[in-house]
From TrEMBL:
Gene3D superfamilies reported for this sequence: 3.40.190.290, Winged helix-like DNA-binding domain superfamily/Winged helix DNA-binding domain
InterPro entries in the record: LysR-type_TF_proteobact-type (IPR058163), LysR_HTH_N (IPR000847), LysR_subst-bd (IPR005119), WH-like_DNA-bd_sf (IPR036388), WH_DNA-bd_sf (IPR036390)
Ranges where the HTH lysR-type domain occurs: 1-59
Alphabetical list of SUPFAM superfamilies matching this protein: Periplasmic binding protein-like II, Winged helix' DNA-binding domain
Gene Ontology biological process terms from the UniProt entry: DNA-templated transcription
Protein name in the entry: DNA-binding transcriptional regulator, LysR family
Nuclease recorded as keyword: no
Amino acid sequence: MDKFQAMQAFIRVVESGTFTKAAQVLDLPKTAVSRLIASLEVELGTKLLNRTTRKVSTTADGAAYYERAQQLMSDLAELEGTMSRAKTNPRGRLRVDLPVPLGLSVILPALPAFVERYPDIELEFGISDRPVDLIAENVDCVVRAGEIFDQSLVARQIGAVRQILCATPAYLDKHGRPSHPADLEHGHVVIRTIASRTNRPFPIVVTKERERVEVQNRRGLTANDIMACLTMGLAGLGVVHALTFSAATHVQSGALETVLSDWVSDPVPVFVAYQPNRHLSAKTRVFIDWLAELFASNESTAKR
């Protein structure tokens, strides 16, 4: 027995007063409606309806069951309406953790467009590059550049970031302008970012046509934050491997000068990660879709 269908049939019989009218409303044979009611009475172990040749009326148990069943159906209809509205007008608190450079330079500056589109979503951001336990910290999704090591999460690539080697003109005037990555091995200071997972500097690998070279340098400065590395580069302390979107304004202003501009680094993929769930909440889904649109529209973060 389909209990939901039986409950609907019972409500329609009570409201219409006859099995015939209820069957017409439900677009079912009269015999099917009778079987549904009979099965429901067997399931509940009580008689719900008094049947005569002229009319149908509820028993005391039937009247009580009708009242509760009607309320249940009303609540269900309201719930379905709420969920349907949520798809077109998502609402509620959304907790997101963003990496420092992407959060401050790319995502947060573009946020007014998202807020205008979805005014009923309450946004709460964490800005960090640390591993985040989504369940324990009640976080809906995280944005990260590079590989997602937590295999329990769903990771969707939304873009990619690129890096360039650059330094101040004063530094290059003093130490020389390299023409090949090997030139950085001697007489230069290379500023690198430390990977939090390995506590070792990220490798710097550049390619020109078919030649691929990893930059080797023993004289270096390191920091566990890529923006701190950029700051050291701006201070004239060495050649920094900086995010293109972070260094762009400084290159345009002349504060920094690109180094080995005909050598390119591999793009670093950017992912948004979230808990596996067949029914991803509407607020999370629209935010992820918006992020994908944002990254695709920005030349320095688009996938290629």
